[in-house]
Amino acid sequence: MNRNLEQTAVDTIKMLSVDAIEKAKSGHPGLPTGAMDYAYVVWTKFLRFNPKDPAWPNRDRFVLSAGHGCMLLYSLLHLTGYGVSLEDLKEFRQAGSLTPGHPEFGHTPGVEATTGPLGQGFANGIGIALASKMMAARFNRPGFDLFDYTVYALVSDGDLMEGISHEAASFAGHLGLGNIVYLFDDNRISIGGSTDITCTDDAARRFEAYGWHVQSIDGHDRAAAEKAIASARAVTDRPSIIVCRTHIAKDAPTKHDTPGAHGEPLGAEETAAMKKALGWPAEPAFFVPDGVYDLFRARPKSLEAEHVAWNELLSRYRQAHPELAAELDAMLEGRAPADLADRLLETAGALDADATRGYGGKIMQTVADLMPGLVGGSADLEPSTKTLLKDTTSVATGDFAGRNIHFGIREHGMGGVVNGLAYSGFFIPYGATFMVFSDYMRGSVRVSALSGLRSIWIWTHDSIFLGEDGPTHEPIEHLASLRAMPNLSVIRPADAAETAMAWAAAIQNTDRPTALLLSRQKAPSLDLDDPAMAKGALKGAYVVQDAPGGQSDVIVIATGTEVRFAQDALKMLDGVKARLVSMPSWDLFERQPKEYRDSVLPPGITKRVVVEAASPFGWERYAGADGLMICIDRFGASAPMKDLQKQFGFLPEQIAGRIGEYVRGA
Amino acid sequence: MNRNLEQTAVDTIKMLSVDAIEKAKSGHPGLPTGAMDYAYVVWTKFLRFNPKDPAWPNRDRFVLSAGHGCMLLYSLLHLTGYGVSLEDLKEFRQAGSLTPGHPEFGHTPGVEATTGPLGQGFANGIGIALASKMMAARFNRPGFDLFDYTVYALVSDGDLMEGISHEAASFAGHLGLGNIVYLFDDNRISIGGSTDITCTDDAARRFEAYGWHVQSIDGHDRAAAEKAIASARAVTDRPSIIVCRTHIAKDAPTKHDTPGAHGEPLGAEETAAMKKALGWPAEPAFFVPDGVYDLFRARPKSLEAEHVAWNELLSRYRQAHPELAAELDAMLEGRAPADLADRLLETAGALDADATRGYGGKIMQTVADLMPGLVGGSADLEPSTKTLLKDTTSVATGDFAGRNIHFGIREHGMGGVVNGLAYSGFFIPYGATFMVFSDYMRGSVRVSALSGLRSIWIWTHDSIFLGEDGPTHEPIEHLASLRAMPNLSVIRPADAAETAMAWAAAIQNTDRPTALLLSRQKAPSLDLDDPAMAKGALKGAYVVQDAPGGQSDVIVIATGTEVRFAQDALKMLDGVKARLVSMPSWDLFERQPKEYRDSVLPPGITKRVVVEAASPFGWERYAGADGLMICIDRFGASAPMKDLQKQFGFLPEQIAGRIGEYVRGA
Predict the structure, then answer these.
(1) pLDDT for A195
(2) Does any CB of chain B come closer than 8 Å to the CB of residue A625?
């Protein structure tokens, strides 16, 4: 290796980043001007990748958890030959460019995870690493080591300060995920100043407490980085973290190691001085010296044979293990059987009366039979959320063959790990907890929506009717706050059949995450003239019953267990001509053609009632500003369900009374 | 001490808890049947309290972070003489009782924090302890040690698994808060089974990494607990945690140490067998043996003199330090000056054009002058959120005199600590970060609303107009999701004057938290006929301008920086008779009388337009289902603001075009 050329290559990463941020007049030069040395080592000596096939299933993954430092990644993607051109770098942070202000999954080739909200990438990497172990356990056979990839991640002090890093690191340490090599960019500078102002953790000791393998190096010593990464790779029974002490804006004469270099362009003067200090040409900007491309592209070139060999191995595997190969293909495609909804409806039809969480727990067994990619678990609430898969085992230290994952009391970490399983490209993962604790994992849920991941969020105990646990556990505003999130499908089924349809919709939502909201309390089935009517739930809303002759004066819209309350109420209302609409999902409904929507909610019937044990916020969309909202606009209370039902006005006779008054204009 | 009586007293805690849960047929017996020994030691040998004055400012605080174990606390409150009767214990988890399913602040005397969502109490305790240090630094003078209280908290494995515990523990360790004694109930059982299934952290090592003083004991050895707590108290430069190894359902013959005992009643048979094993009378339930009350009440009785002495000390302090005493009284009362709004409006009037975050940063200096209880900081975003108070210092290790707090990159921890500062009863605390990261702290925000705390959440970068940072940083659904939360006041001001009113409203919101949503980009002042019109913002919405003669055909409602966009748009619309309404706060508006609301939004004008760079979700309430929503129903993008303004249709000419079409019915 030509020593000078290597240094030149490292400086190229740095200066491309500086120039791009300078041109954009916006960005974070700190990370790319401090992390370039060990990043160079990862990308030229360890990472297994093929820029021509960014989806290579057994590629190693590099996750930039510190997403604000994305120019480091974009520079590397460009230099190593991904589809990111020098022109793209010049368009950093501009409208429509391939190089947005933080990395976006699905937008830029080679970006493995959407990062920027700190700590998400840290947890995603652990999910992606777990996926490698689970795929190996399920598919590798003697002579066929199909899956053995490693996850490298660059994590910053911000990532480590975030609570999600604790949850995910503890989880990874517990499972002994040996295919993790995290590089902690210990630059000790954050926006607010030196990290000493806020944090004096002994990071090494902390990660030892989680059971990680820990090393500390000078992050600018590339030989030390190479040795440490090799050591980390050699430790296969524990995750590894390497504390890399770095200095931001290295070689910048005045901004070296200063907070000013963290998140603002260095400025023309400082950039010029930095180039001078490095012996770098002042012009042109975005300069890539001779030989640098060859150096960066030598590794992917040398890996091409490995890529070919892997594909050949897969071909031989199809011959040797046709059933397994079929299962693998099914997972990679992730396609739902055409008759999924019918089969789940059949399952639902055979169930005894239960809560929708109970129905969900049984229906998901059928889903698991049909969709080999379905894996998941809960945040220590398996018995309460009913989310343990049968006929399989639980993932445990050294044993990754099962499909159940015990996430521990770590909702946010669960969110990040579930998203990581989805990012891997293999799984349809689910994560479960109480609905009120969706708040704890909202950061991850948002990223799942933004990245279009197929994560399934199962949130049970979906209303005040959970009862005795009281207001800290009772969702009120959550339905509205989840419905408001773009690209998140939110479904709250009423009974067994609707729960089956909710699961079918979740599997059919291939380009977005789904939230399944399930009840703690019993949910007797709706009275339907024809059980097949429940398939209307796939369209988000459907008519459960209509006034005789179809001439209704009022439409009663309800969701979840409240649909049955409303149905019981309407039985008490002689003389009121009402249509009852079950509306488990706004977003599924809003994806229907106008004709269908108008057929369910005819614009001519302007009297509308909503029955939902949650905030009325947003329901004016369907009920109008003058509609009757039988909802809850305050926090809940601790009492047995029946008492709460009365206190909050959800007994069928109370509902009937209010509808009657409303229709009569009282 | 009579050894037998002490054991009897401990068993009374345990059996009252078991009986109450049994009677309620619901609850978590695990914690109270494992933690009673060291809890007894805290309450009878260390805690400084007076049940007759639960608000005694210098009392020690006991926080039950593991709120599901609340029967332990209710039993202790009853036995030590708080206003919780035996009848109240019999009403555990029933409608309207003093003993709800999780502890609720402001509801039950002696409950210092609303807990149940795990980890919140852990962080609250740290805020309450920080408040002690800050009060001491500000008010203690030679001979007047007014403030020196200690915070004891019972924390569970669930609390420690949650990420917020990492954030808050790291923060407390950094600041060296020596007045913290946390007792970790290491019972190794969670709902899902043994904690070994999910967690193998070395908790002691972890807390050492944070700089805490750590001890480990047998949690059933009361002498060891007494010694350890005394040692913890003696360490004054670091927080302390004592790992108490306990066994849940101790003395229950079959459910001892089992997950089944964690969260379900033990059952009649097991309860009877447990009583038999303890030599406890089978009947009556809720039995308190002779001498037990005396034993528990001996300590508060002995502390009465200390309580009297403290009040006398305060009286002498008023004489010796009248100015400080006046400041202290102002903080305890927390009353805003009658002319607050006018004074803030005056400050605003003198400001140069800036972003609303910039206005906010300047206006809050005046607020700080007027309200000595105002303290706070940001999650490593002081320069971006403009939230550093001037003329004061920053809280730092060993120096708690300042009013600025550097929370680090720990949004959720910040939320919990800010709430703790509010729970202390002294401060009006604020916590700041980017609006999109309100997601990271939503768990704490919800508790602030549920507890009616006076926490102020400052969230800047309140729309896609933050620009280059892109969709990971751009709030879309957050406005709706925050407006949907009960008891949270949400205010998004348009300019300097409205920002002043937003701050005035925040201070006047004495029974609820406030969210201030502020812009990154410049917010030129609205054109108002009279600057005093901006005081309409205090009512949530007001008319900015009307069609000549007051006969408008359409009402344009806007918030934040979009009000000015709309005003500029209307200037381009000849012939359209429009009223422009600025609506910085839905909840303030909804608290106004109907007459006022109808005067701002006359029901007769049904054509409505909303201009807000966020999800339209919920706006049908004011715009009707057929209103024109100039909003954003997708995720944002990374580009300079001007480009995004055009891309998303928020240039004044674009807004004008759409309003014109809408009014003309195109």
Answers:
(1) 84
(2) yes
Please say whether the beta carbons of B658 and B649 come within 8 A: yes
Tell me the two tokens of residue B455: 């926490």
Alpha-carbon distances, residue A328 vs A139, A147, A396, B245 (angstroms): 8, 11, 22, 46
Query: CB–CB of A95 and B643 under 8 A?
Result: yes
**A positions 373-432 inside 8 Å of B (CB):** 378, 380-384, 394, 396, 406-413
User: Helix A163-175 and helix B163-175: axis angle, to 10°?
Assistant: 120
What ipTM was assigned to the predicted interfaces of this complex?
0.98
pLDDT digits (tens, 9 = 90+) for A431-455: 999 999 999 999 999 999 999 999 9
DSSP string covering B302-367, please? HHHHHHHHHHHHHHHHHHH-HHHHHHHHHHHH-PPPTTHHHHHHHHHHTPPS-BHHHHHHHHHHHH
CA distances from B10 to A32, A210, B6, B32, B250 (A): 59, 35, 6, 10, 12
CATH 3.40.50.970 for the B333-517 domain, yes or no: yes
- CA of B546: how far to CAs of B555, B563, B650, in Å? 9, 14, 21
Give the tens place of pLDDT for each residue, B534-579.
999 999 999 999 998 878 999 999 999 999 999 999 999 988 999 9
Give the pairing type, strands B428-434 and B404-406.
unpaired
Q: Return the beta strands (E) in A20-80 as ranges.
A: 61-64
Distance from CA of A595 to the nearest CA of B (A): 17
End-to-end CA distance of chain A: 88
Of B406, B437, B634, the CB nearest to A192: B406
Question: CA separation (Å) from A587 to A431, A488, B477, B595?
Answer: 21, 8, 14, 36
Where do we find the tokens 């050894």?
Answer: B3
What pLDDT score does B190 carry? Answer: 81
* A428 class by beta-carbon count within 10 Å (0-12 exposed, 13-18 middle, 19+ buried): buried
- How many angstroms separate the CA atoms of A193 and A549, rounded? 72
- Judged by a CB distance cut-off of 8 A, whether residue B197 touches chain A is yes
Domain ranges of chain B: 5-302, 333-517, 535-664
Q: Return the structure tokens found at B350.
A: 């003198």
Find tokens 């049955």 and name the residue: A564
Q: Of A104, A162, A167, A411, which is the active-site residue?
A: A411
pLDDT of residue A660: 96
Q: What is the signed CA dihedral for A179, A180, A181, A182, rounded to 10 degrees? A: 180
Cα separation values, B208 from B170, B216, B218, B613, Å: 10, 12, 19, 46
Q: Which amino acid is at A457?
A: W
pLDDT digits (tens, 9 = 90+) for B111-134: 999 999 999 999 999 999 999 999
Q: A1 pLDDT band (50/70/90 cuts)?
A: very low
Fold topology of A535-664: Rossmann fold (3.40.50)
Q: Which residues of chain B have pLDDT under 50?
A: 1-2
Instruction: State the first-to-last Cα distance of chain B, in angstroms, to the nearest integer.
Output: 88
Is position B304 annotated as part of the catalytic site? Answer: no
In whole angstroms, give the CA distance from residue A474 to residue A521. 13
Please give the Cα distance from A282 to A377 (Å, whole number): 55
DSSP percent split of chain B into helix, strand, coil, nearest 5: 45, 15, 40
For domain B5-302, the question of CATH label 3.40.50.970 is answered with yes
Name the one residue in this structure whose structure tokens are 């059952």: B267
pTM for the structure as a whole = 0.98
Domain B333-517 and domain B535-664, same fold? Reply is yes
Give CA–CA dist B216/A515, Å, rounded: 42
Rounded to an integer, what distance in angstroms lies between the CA atom of residue B457 and that of residue B263? 34
CB contacts, 8 Å: A410 with chain B: 161-163, 198
Count CB neighbours of B45 within 10 A.
14
